[in-house]
Amino acid sequence: MNDPIYFDESLRAFRDQVARFVNEEIIPYAEKWEEEGMVPRELYCKAGELGMFGLRYPEEYGGSNLNALYTAVMCEELGKCTYGGVSIGMAVHGEMSSPHLERFGTSEQKDKYLTKIISGELVTGVAVTEPDAGSDVAGIRTRAVKDGDEWVINGTKMFITNGLYGGLFFVAAKTDPEAKGSRGVTMFLVERDTPGFSVARPLKKTGWLASDTAELIFEDMRVHESNVLGEVNRGFYSVMENFQNERLALGMMAMGEAQKALELTLQYVKDRKAFGGVLWDKQIIRQRLSQLSAEVEAARQLGYHCAWLDSQGKDCVKETSMVKVLCGELVNKVMYECVQFHGGMGFMRETAVERMSRDARVHAIGGGATEVMREEIAKRL
Fold first, then answer.
1. pLDDT of 195-214, one tens digit each?
2. What is the spatial distance between Cα 292 and Cα 332, in angstroms, rounded to a whole number?
3. 60 counts as catalytic
4. pTM for this structure?
């Protein structure tokens, strides 16, 4: 794939740095992490040393004060590692949860946590989704009731990435039960050792096996009012704002996965002998791989254009939603064909595309399901 027109030498150098990190620090070890169901915290610290978790954060906390184009580059390259559980854990920490703190935290909250987050020492997760509320954030049931200078929180969160081993969570709770719709939601900072906080159970998934995913329980958990993140009863809007960054990150990660799957499949069909030649000799295979490559390149370019719009301070909710729905569906289409062209080997656990096909399925669900994204686009047509 050619570099988008937005690339300069700095972006190219950063891409090469992340690619080296993937090849040297992830790929040789990730099979073990798949079996163990977690990524060692040491990897986060190594990524932190390279600045991968502080791309768009202030320099005073150890960040690089860059823009969304760097997010797009990093997530695309992480997607190429072929282990979706590794890349999603890192992306959730750096691009989907901690931005809540950077954007809406007080100076005191940032001073307490942000440097450790950027260094990778403190791993974060965002706890919004519940058993009965995912994309429908306004429907959450977790409650927070004010009691003096504390808030008492009760409820359950589901499908939380970094939920087993994360150290800090950004938790959404209903603080005004009488408010209609999206009003009355507040975000809270919750440390893992807070009394009343517990991990109900680790969740067994079809894919993303290296990612620690859990159900979280809050039982009469008390947090000080200084743990409120942003404004009381305005948390829904901060969640919605951060969703745009999350959806761009997921879209670009998916396109990194799609590119790598096509690369692996191209190599396979050029080597696989069948019918007196190799599979690449068959016109139908060449044409289907060509079509998929064209679609991936188009979706990838849309992702970078969206990142550029964000870097220019332009509203791009529609475009971000397009990236999420297009890339989430396309990566699954690509994986289906790649498994098919691998034949029986595509169904074997020893083959990368088998794992990648399982990992890719959730791209059309997490971070805003395809159907929800289509409605977001429709509102702006």
1. 999 999 899 999 999 999 99
2. 11
3. no
4. 0.94
